[in-house]
Automatic annotation (TrEMBL):
The lineage of its organism: Bacteria, Bacillati, Actinomycetota, Actinomycetes, Kitasatosporales. Residues 45-185, 217-354 form the SIS domain. The gene is glmS. It catalyses: D-fructose 6-phosphate + L-glutamine = D-glucosamine 6-phosphate + L-glutamate. This is Glutamine--fructose-6-phosphate aminotransferase [isomerizing]. Homodimer. The keyword Transmembrane helix does not apply. It is found in: Cytoplasm. The active site is at K359. GO terms for molecular function: glutamine-fructose-6-phosphate transaminase (isomerizing) activity.
Amino acid sequence: ESYDMGGHDTYMHKEISEQADAVDRVLRGRIDDRFATVHLGGLNLDAREARAVRRVKILGCGSAYHAGQIGAQMIEELARIPADAEPASEFRYRNPVVDPDTLYIAVSQSGETYDTLAAVQELKRKGARVLGVVNVVGSAIARETDGGVYVHAGPEVCVVSTKCFTNTAVAFALLALHLGRIRDLSVADGRRIIDGLRRLPGQIEEILRGEERIAKLAAAYADAKSMMFVGRVRGFPVAREASLKLKEVSYIHAEAYPASELKHGPLALIEPAVPTVAIVPGDDLLEKNRATLEEIKARSGRILAVAHVEQEKADDTIVVPANEPELDPVLLGIPLQLLAYHTALALGRDIDKPRNLAKSVTVE
Ligand code: AGP
């Protein structure tokens, strides 16, 4: 992939369109079918060390933090290691307890984000083991960490992250599978995840073929005064990232909430001018999510669902192919990148260079 626009009107559109190839690249040469696992050459964490990890803490900013949230869920689910993500910008200022049994992971597209780098440096000073999940090879965070996984998304020029976000989530799936197979993940489950990983590029192509309809939906929702994004568990980081993307590029105010928290406050905001984008994976929380759609409908809210099948209670549904439940978050966010893009286009925004933002924030 190059810096050439290749016929696209913006880098954002080019980068969204490149995602099937990008995911193919993060997988290439890493899958080991024989042992139903993956090889991550630069990890520098042997099996004994991996088994000794008691907790995983993932640090990043913005989209990288959201990809880290997806990663934390994957690591907990597949490797059964307690894991969570925190904004690096918060972590570095709160004098955190640095625990020798915790594996710290810094996530960054650029590898130069100052807050994330400062968190890594603070951790290193305190003797922690820190890995990187980074896109830019040889960047500061890649150099300062003890090892890690390159994301191989290729150059990302648009200020808002799209293909790197997706590839980072896939890189975390690889890491989770690797840790899982060293610990208690069965061969059968390892194979199930590998098969799912291989289906991703084709499914991404399928989602991107639906662009024309998403463009129409974007035009229909572009008059919103604010938008609510909701999801439960696997759907929540997807909602957060989609909300960030929409506000960055279209300047429409957007809020992301766990669907389960709506009734504890944000439901007061629901009215026809505040549509809700609901992330509805086909997992064991499907019925709970359907109940949420009903709650919103009962308050005259417009609903755009992102789901694997049409949602009766939604005004519109974007249907996304289903993969393995653990991998579905990788796919569910992609149509919402297109929604943000087409909303910004409809509103005449400067898509590749949104106001007030820089691609990487390398100063305090
Ligand atoms: C992405 O849409 C944003 N531009 C922003 O949130 C970004 O993800 C964040 O600044 C972190 O950048 P990094 O991945 O290069 O560290």
